């Protein structure tokens, strides 16, 4: 047909008028038939009616200025309650005059998260960002940090080892010498420390007053539990998923057993076990911070779920990818880190972020063992007899804050999918 | 130009299979395979589907494990020792039917990955080698694209270049043109013929009989896990001895 007609004779036709513009769109999508038209009108009326009622309550008759609960009564929403209590809801029982500390801790954590969301930071910079971010966060929250000598030596050993392992192909001789020096100092120091030659010594950084974890509350608690919970659960979940596909029966059995065990019990029971039963098993005299125990429980639980999500990604890869990597002579770690995981993780971004969002909200279950996370402090704000009787406002406010975080994650998931698939699709 | 003119009798043998047997469950997929490949020899393996020809070459770089017999590649006997396997895989390049390029890496990164990580080659040097190989397979302009943006024929040529990047002594081809649209078969075969003329030792599972005639020193016919017949290409096609060979050749030559 194109051959029969010279190109010059074909004039591009404008699309029919009834298909374009607002009216065209509405006619096509909303009023294409009698049934559709009626449904559209009914739904519009319903939405307007509900929205009208909500705005009436939340804005037009709402009270923003009352100083006690009784002044609020009779009208619409009592936002004065939030105004009165927001510092408690956000920061819990943290000493009142020190509230700037959890505020900046939250800002530091958010900055850390936003920076690490950028793909260009996914290299050594990520370690620096998390190192500094975590240090600032916990220094602000605790007020004082004591870094024991053994930890410093251990970090030196790990850094040297990691540098040598990861950069063996690229390092210059002097760089390599630095790694060997780190390993040497770390290993010798640790041995001497264990033998008791080196004293029990720690670097104390104590610019602020000490605030113990039982006083922490509100948003920083939720953010710490979720951020570090997922930050540790993710690599742990990857290892579990790889272990579950291992050819070695012992490793495979352990991973399957762990995943099934953890998935089979509610998070609440795990938290209660961590808070009530674990201390019974520990030798008397040793105590592990309750907050830390809850954190570990969250990590274990999230790890099992993340592992199964990632396993789905691993199974979606064609066998040929494994074979091609094998045939090139890549060893197992190289194959896994360079070929398998980058592809498997891309596939599972939507379910993975789904799991992350679920766990962000599930951290609120720590209220069971008396940790004051954001939802729990919101709940506690209702206890004040002066302000009794306004649960709707408080929970709506809490829901709004949770929504901001969860929706950000959801948008980030979308961005990541597009970003990582750039160029790989036709 | 037929390779028969070359004298291979004095060449060193680089692959030896002695009494190799393999089973998938009860199914005897390789039965008593004996094969000796000389340096620089080009062997074409053909046979009906399910005859074990792919399994045979996949045993040579241990993508499949054989159960009985010995496979010796460049003096190294294949065993469960990971070091042995990795040593052999460094010497043996492989090209797959379904290309198996890494879709998340650019063409250039696909090529430089193994030299950098397995051979610990500096990145710059690896990239130079990669570019020269891409030029050789006639697609240097695609270096920064991703595999998904290339046609099947281009992808298979990249796969060949990727295998060559490791400077292998032996190349295995597992039905390299079977997944290609007909108009792309030639561009891949041309690259393989060129490679053959440069003296690479090649084992190629293929039904491209034109390719076999052009470069093969020996054509092997496999059926039901056995090597039924092997001969120089001219003799093989002109005077097949075994009934099964005749039947098979009748079928595939008829179709072409």
UniProtKB/TrEMBL annotation, chain A:
InterPro entries: AA_ABC_transptr_permease_3TM, ArtM/GltK/GlnP/TcyL/YhdX-like, MetI-like, MetI-like_sf. The chain crosses the membrane at residues 30-51, 100-117, 124-143, 149-166, 178-198, 218-242, 254-282, 294-314, 352-375, 387-407. It holds the Pfam family BPD_transp_1. The keyword Transmembrane applies. It comes from the Bacteria. The keyword Membrane applies. PROSITE patterns: ABC_TM1. Residues 219-413 form the ABC transmembrane type-1 domain. Gene3D superfamilies: MetI-like (1.10.3720.10). Keywords: Cell membrane, Membrane, Transmembrane, Transmembrane helix, Transport. It is found in: Cell inner membrane; Cell membrane. It is a multi-pass membrane protein. Belongs to the binding-protein-dependent transport system permease family. HisMQ subfamily. NCBIfam families: HEQRo_perm_3TM. This is Amino acid ABC transporter permease. It comes from Reyranella aquatilis.
Automatic annotation (TrEMBL), chain B:
The lineage of its organism: Bacteria, Pseudomonadati, Pseudomonadota, Alphaproteobacteria, Hyphomicrobiales. Keywords: ATP-binding, Nucleotide-binding, Transport. This is Amino acid ABC transporter ATP-binding protein. The keyword Transport applies. Belongs to the ABC transporter superfamily. It comes from Reyranella aquatilis. Residues 15-249 form the ABC transporter domain. It comes from the Bacteria. One of its GO terms (molecular function) is ATP binding. InterPro entries: AAA+_ATPase, ABC_ATPase_HisP-typ, ABC_transporter-like_ATP-bd, ABC_transporter-like_CS, MetN_ABC_transporter-like, P-loop_NTPase.
């Amino acid at each position: 047909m194109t051959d029969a007609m010279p190109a010059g004779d074909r004039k591009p036709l404008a699309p029919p008028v009834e298909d374009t513009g607002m009216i065209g769109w509405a006619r096509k999508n909303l009023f294409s038939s009698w049934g559709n038209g009626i449904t559209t009108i009914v739904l519009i009326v319903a939405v307007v009616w509900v929205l009208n009622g909500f705005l009436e309550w939340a804005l037009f008759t709402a009270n923003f200025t009352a100083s006690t609960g009784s002044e609020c009564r009779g009208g619409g929403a009592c936002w004065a309650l939030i105004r009165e209590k927001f510092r408690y809801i956000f920061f819990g029982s943290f000493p009142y005059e020190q509230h700037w500390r959890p505020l900046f801790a939250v800002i530091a954590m958010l900055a850390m998260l936003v920076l690490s969301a950028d793909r260009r930071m996914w290299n050594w910079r990520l370690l620096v960002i998390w190192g500094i971010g975590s240090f600032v966060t916990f220094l602000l929250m605790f007020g004082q940090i004591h870094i024991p000598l053994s930890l410093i030596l251990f970090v030196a050993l790990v850094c040297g080892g990691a540098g040598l392992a990861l950069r063996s192909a690229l390092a210059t001789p002097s760089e390599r010498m630095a790694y060997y020096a780190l390993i040497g100092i770390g290993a010798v120091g640790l041995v001497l420390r264990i033998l008791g030659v080196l004293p029990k010594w720690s670097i104390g950084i104590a610019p602020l007053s000490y605030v113990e974890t039982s006083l922490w509350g509100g948003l920083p608690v939720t953010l710490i539990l979720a951020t570090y919970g997922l930050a540790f659960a993710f690599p742990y979940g990857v290892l579990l998923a790889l272990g579950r596909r291992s050819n070695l029966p012992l490793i495979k059995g352990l991973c399957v057993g762990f995943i099934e065990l953890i998935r089979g019990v509610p998070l609440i029971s795990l938290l209660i076990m961590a808070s009530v039963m674990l201390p019974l098993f520990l030798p008397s005299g040793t105590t592990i911070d309750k907050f830390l125990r809850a954190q570990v429980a969250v990590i274990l639980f999230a790890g099992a779920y993340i592992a199964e999500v990632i396993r789905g990604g691993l199974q979606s890869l064609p066998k040929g990818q494994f074979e091609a990597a094998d045939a090139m002579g890549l060893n197992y770690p190289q194959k896994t880190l360079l070929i398998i995981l980058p592809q498997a993780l891309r596939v599972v971004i939507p379910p993975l972020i789904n799991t992350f969002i679920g766990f962000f909200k599930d951290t609120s279950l720590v209220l069971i063992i008396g940790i004051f996370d954001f939802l729990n402090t919101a709940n506690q704000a209702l206890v004040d007899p002066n302000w009794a009787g306004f649960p709707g406002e408080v929970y709506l406010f809490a829901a709004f804050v949770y929504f901001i975080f969860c929706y950000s994650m959801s948008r980030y998931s979308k961005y990541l999918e597009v970003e990582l698939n750039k160029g790989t699709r036709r | 130009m037929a390779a028969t003119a070359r004298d291979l009798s004095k060449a060193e043998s680089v692959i030896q299979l002695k009494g190799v047997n393999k089973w998938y469950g009860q199914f005897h997929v390789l039965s008593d395979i004996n094969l000796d490949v000389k340096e620089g020899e080009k062997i074409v393996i053909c046979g009906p589907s399910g005859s074990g020809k792919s399994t045979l070459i996949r045993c040579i770089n241990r993508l499949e494990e054989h159960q009985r017999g010995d496979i010796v590649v460049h003096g190294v006997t294949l065993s469960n020792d990971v070091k042995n396997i990795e040593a052999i895989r460094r010497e043996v390049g492989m090209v797959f039917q379904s290309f198996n390029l890494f879709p998340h890496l650019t063409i250039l990164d696909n090529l430089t990955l193994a030299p950098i990580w397995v051979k610990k080659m500096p990145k710059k040097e690896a990239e130079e080698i990669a570019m020269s190989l891409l030029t050789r397979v006639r697609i240097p302009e695609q270096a920064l694209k991703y595999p998904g943006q290339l046609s099947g024929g281009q992808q298979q040529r990249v796969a060949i270049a990727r295998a060559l990047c490791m400077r292998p002594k032996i190349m295995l081809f597992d039905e390299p043109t079977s997944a290609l649209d007909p108009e792309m078969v030639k561009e891949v075969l041309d690259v393989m013929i060129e490679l053959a003329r440069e003296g690479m030792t090649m084992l190629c599972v293929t039904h491209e009989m034109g390719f076999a005639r052009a470069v093969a020193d020996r054509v092997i016919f496999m059926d039901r896990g056995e090597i039924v017949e092997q001969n120089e290409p001219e003799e093989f096609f002109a005077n097949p001895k075994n009934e099964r060979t005749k039947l098979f050749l009748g079928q595939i030559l008829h179709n072409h």
